[in-house]
Amino acid sequence: MLENIKPMDIEKRSFEIITALLGDKKLAPENELVIKRAIHTTADFDYADNLVFSDGAVQKGLAALRSGCDIVTDTQMAKAGINKTILAKLGGQVHCFMSDEDVAQEAKQRGVTRAIVSMERAASLEKPCIFAIGNAPTALIQIHKLMNAGKLQPALVIGVPVGFVNVIESKELIIQSSAPYIVARGRKGGSNVAAAICNALLYQITR
Amino acid sequence: MLENIKPMDIEKRSFEIITALLGDKKLAPENELVIKRAIHTTADFDYADNLVFSDGAVQKGLAALRSGCDIVTDTQMAKAGINKTILAKLGGQVHCFMSDEDVAQEAKQRGVTRAIVSMERAASLEKPCIFAIGNAPTALIQIHKLMNAGKLQPALVIGVPVGFVNVIESKELIIQSSAPYIVARGRKGGSNVAAAICNALLYQITR
């Protein structure tokens, strides 16, 4: 039986249903909107358990966005999904170097993933950045290496690559690092989840 | 413990792990690559159960793509995720009307979703199309209406919107229709799954 509902009310109603389905599940108030938006994007309630946050991660992300930080991501899909209108109003933009011809060439020559080269490119950006990684564990591994080498200090790492090879391990590296993080522990995640978490932050600032 | 693996081998290794984790689960051979790619994209094994296929859906999708059909989708994220290089070699392109200014205006005036207006636009395309719907249940409902009115005959409907309002019902409409379909029954799906299913078809033709 189709529900008769106005377009503008669909999202509100969806969040009400998510809240009802979460039942007695306790979510930390500061993380609640991020968790619920990840569930909204996937209909997968595992995100109520697998999303972990460093202390004050959401506040640090919001502060960075309010100061006009950029977002670096590892897929064109996440770039497409992030609300670039709000980000631009705050003074930020989204970077994704994955499809750049010179990145592809360098990765091939060095026998490494394009994600590794992309993160090196990102480390040379002169603005503070949030890293939203939805696909490549090698991106997280490289962020970790660049941080250890003193070459990168992310404003926040959204570490939600999905998959079966080195994904779990790459997320644990970020959890053990000094970076503020929002990580989906385990195998799950994706470009859609990375974009949803960025938007959950952006919508707390202005919508 | 990080696994040392070459970039080009990561996907192959991922599919081996998925196959191992599926264990004794029986998948119809013609649907197997679609199901495994949906799992690869989400790390969510629910797709081994919730993906349902009309008779010969995969073969019909492959035939349409080989004949140079276009793909219509309801999100820029799915458009970003579909392999447009392979599609173009076959003579096709991806359409997404959701961000078109005139679509937004007409939707506002009529008090309907942009997805509804977008599907009406798509129905006037003169080429056969595969519809890959990863977000808006109203897109599936409108496709169903247009088919019933004799105004649309999709080559294949990939019906995988995600969410909590009218999502389940919209998918059942497609399952009961005369269209060839690949549908993720229930609440789950997403732009990433829509793109993954398109790519699972494209990669069977050429890669």
Q: Topology, pairings included?
A:
Two copies of one chain form a homodimer.
Chain A lengths: L9 H13 L9 H11 L4 H4 E3 L3 H10 L3 E4 L2 H6 L2 H6 L4 E2 L5 H10 L3 H10 L5 E5 L3 H12 L7 E4 L7 H9 L5 E4 L6 H15 L2
Parallel strand pairs in A: 2-3, 2-4, 4-5, 5-6
Antiparallel strand pairs in A: 1-6
Task: Please give a structural write-up.
The structure is a homodimer. With about 210 residues, chain A is of the alpha/beta class. Helices cover about 50% and strands about 10% of the residues of chain A. Chain A has a six-stranded mixed beta sheet, with helices on both faces. In chain A, α7 packs across α8 (about 115-125). The longest helix of chain A has 15 residues, at about 190-205. The radius of gyration of chain A is 17 Å and the shape is globular. The two termini of chain A are about 30 Å apart. At the A-B interface, α1, α2, α5, α10 and α11 of A face α1, α2, α5, α10 and α11 of B.
Strand content of chain A: 5-15%
Uncertain regions spanning at least 5 consecutive residues of chain A: none
Strand order of the largest sheet of chain A: 1-6-5-4-2-3
Oligomer: homodimer
* Largest sheet properties of chain A: 6 strands, mixed
Question: Which pair of chains has the greatest number of interface residues, and how are they split between the two chains?
Answer: A-B, 46 and 46 residues
Number of helices, where a helix is a run of at least 4 consecutive DSSP H or I residues of chain A = 11
Pattern of helices and strands of chain A: HHHEHEHHEHHEHEHEH
N- to C-terminal distance of chain A: 31 Å
What is the overall silhouette of chain A?
globular
